Amino acid sequence: MSSQTSNYAEIADHKSSVRERVWTELRKVAVADSRFHFDFGEFIADFEGGEAAVERLLDNPYYRDARLIFITPDNCLDRLRLQALKDGKLVLMTTYSIKRGFWLLDPKKIAPEIYLYASTLDGMERVGEHMTLADIQTKLPNVDYMVTGTGAINLEGVRFGKGHGFFDAEWGMLYQLGKISVETPCAAVVHDCQVLSEKLNPDVYDTVVDVIFTPTRAINVSGPHKPTCGIIWDRLDQHMFDTIPPLQELKAMGL
Questions:
Q1: In this prediction, what percent of the chain has a pLDDT beyond 70?
Q2: In which residue ranges of the chain is pLDDT below 70?
Q3: Kind of enzyme, top EC level (predicted)?
Q4: What is the pLDDT of residues 45-96, one digit of tens each?
């Protein structure tokens, strides 16, 4: 085994250990998912106090100043997508596991009485507009704000998600399209038990956030070091490439 391969394995083992430890505590406050129950390797859970965490995000200038927000399809962010529509903001999101791509929710094109439905994973595919990467590149303004849930995060803004790398892939694709940069603010919405004071060892493509919102506090990260590599094709899991059409589209675009 090469030293580089060994380093990758050590990082993966470290991430897995951190997740398992945090998930034990998260189970005490998480809201079970109808499909995955408490399998946190398959979904990002909503949690007790989720409303308060989102309220903190809504009161932050990053949100107030944003016109177009990318919001991940996490359970803890349903209410944020709904409020963003009510506030007249464009919402860009992906389907679960990105397999059916990116979708745009434009509140001007959706009847207010179905905003709640539109903010859900099932509803957004029925009332939203499917966006190819070419559409995102040519038809949309730059993304003003990136918001995600996660599995574990530390005070330096280093986040470890479910282990699939979906948000890292979303960041990488939008970065390569030129729709975000290291200056684009990024936030995580989590329960307090998911916030760690310890050092976390990120990989080169791991996303780092500017601010963390929990039910009890907003944590500003000083000088977050964000990835600038886009998609690293020789590190990309082959199964992800084979099952996520936007990755195939990006590869074909030659960016």
A1: 93
A2: 1-13, 162-164
A3: ligase
A4: 999 999 999 999 999 999 999 999 999 999 999 999 999 999 999 999 999 8
Domain limits at 185? 3-253
The answer to whether the pTM exceeds 0.70 is: yes
Q: Structurally, how many domains does the chain consist of?
A: 1
Extract the tokens encoding 89. 């903001």
- Contacts with 194 (C-beta within 8 Å, 6 or more apart), sequence order: 22, 25, 26, 150, 151, 152, 153, 214
Structure tokens at 224: 């977050």
